Amino acid sequence: MQVLGVILAAGKGSRFKSEKPKVIHTLLGKPMVYFPYEALLSLDPIKVAFIVGHKKEEVISTVKGFPQADQKVVFFEQVNPKGGTGDAVRQALPLLKEHPDKVVVILNGDSPLIKGETLKEGLKKLIEHSLDGVIFTTILEDPTGYGRIVRDEKGHVVEIVEEKDASEAQRKIKEVNGGFYIFRVQPLLEALKELKPSPVSGEVYLTDVVKILHSKGYKVDTYQTPYWELLGVNDRRQLAEAEKLLLERKIENLQREGVTVRLPETVYIEWDIQVGRDTEIEPHAVLKGKTSVGENCLIGVGSILENTTVENNVEILPYSYISDSQIEEGCVIGPFARIRNQSHLKEECEIGNFVEVKKSTIGRKTKAKHLSYIGDAQIGDNTNIGAGTVFANYDGVNKYQTSVGNNVFIGSNSLIIAPRQLGDWSFIAGGSVVNKDVPPKALAVSRAPLRILEGKNPLLRKDKNS
Length: 466
Ligand code: UD1
Ligand code: CA
Known about the structure:
There is one protein chain. The chain folds into 2 domains: about 5-230, Spore Coat Polysaccharide Biosynthesis Protein SpsA, Chain A, CATH 3.90.550; about 235-445, UDP N-Acetylglucosamine Acyltransferase, domain 1, CATH 2.160.10. Helix content is about 20%, strand content about 30%. The protein has 10 helices and 41 strands. An 11-stranded parallel beta sheet has the order 12-15-18-21-24-27-30-33-36-39-41, with helices on one face. Strands 14-17-20-23-26-29-32-35-38 form a 9-stranded parallel beta sheet, with no helix packed on it. The longest helix is centred in the middle third of the chain and has 21 residues, at about 235-255. Calcium ion binds near residues 108, 110, 232 and 234.
């Protein structure tokens, strides 16, 4: 069955208290309105109409970045974003009228937990029971804020009553409207024509189509889902609640693919992140942005990966922070390492404790294991960078590059003043200040001579305590 989609995203979201449109606030790094769109995509819709209004430019530019947006998405503007959800759906009339014999799936843009699977089940029910509409509902102990499903003595759905408009008795109904609907287009078009503004709020409610369809003898039924699939995000507390639920879903997906996540309730992994099989993610890890992690890696306690590609068999020891970088196979990083700005670590590098690497390439099997700053450097293979080495890349005005060859040995506490070139097999003695280029195979030493003054330990001076 071919379907159309409509996503309501024009509302102001006043309860959210934000300058930014509510539906583009992010959950696990994705705009809220992406999630209902993703669920719809799994039905392979003919078109998805986004109803936009409040700050529409921001919503439109966000949605245009979604997968398949070029082929699938059409925008309709709701001039009065307080007109209500019925007024919003009416904006999509031109699309609906083109497909009177199809089915339309209408989703609230502020309800990110709906699953494609659930929509498919609802669609199946519509077809198998020859219904004209299916409303996705759930039972809530505390139904506050949701529209209530009103049934007659026989249990047939009669109408949806909005909380603002509900009587005392209706407010006690625990079955609520999730804000997701499937309708046959022709009956919906008939009902949309008859919608009138609520005398209480002045809004035109989409939910009123249920009463109209019922009165015209059309058949509308419900499809019940677990409560969390219908969670609507009206304020920041619900945003946090929805993000937590999505995170559980994300982690479950990773676990199913063979990823171990220790103390999963402490980690944060964004929606798009890929992690390979047999990788272990330790507590309090954060994986965000355009990050991917290969197979059989370790992401240690408290580590942060942002816009970073990690290949297979990489160990990231605790409390390392890696951003905008590429880590090749077999590297060992951390604990407490900082790698950033388009750094590229080639195979089997070791970057250890308190080492910062900025905009640098580190060659194969090169090691910098303790207390270093490596900035704007291209370093070859099998090179050793001793503890405390600093690449001085900045003279207060400009940044300069350093290139270090293969098999170089840089002794501890050396200062390499850029721009500099250190040739293959060069050797920098510990404590040197390297302010000239070093040719291949050369030894570079700069050291103030050490003086030994026999018996002159100042702590042992005779007059010390007098
Ligand atoms: C709506 C339903 C309610 C349901 C609840 C589930 C109506 C009248 N009520 O209430 O029965 O229980 O969702 O979460 O539909 N929007 C527009 N244009 C408008 C108003 C809203 O595009 O004029 C969009 C909003 O951006 C939002 C969605 O529609 O994405 C829902 O609007 P909202 O005002 O949050 O409706 P609720 O009061 O939550
Ligand atoms: Ca809502």
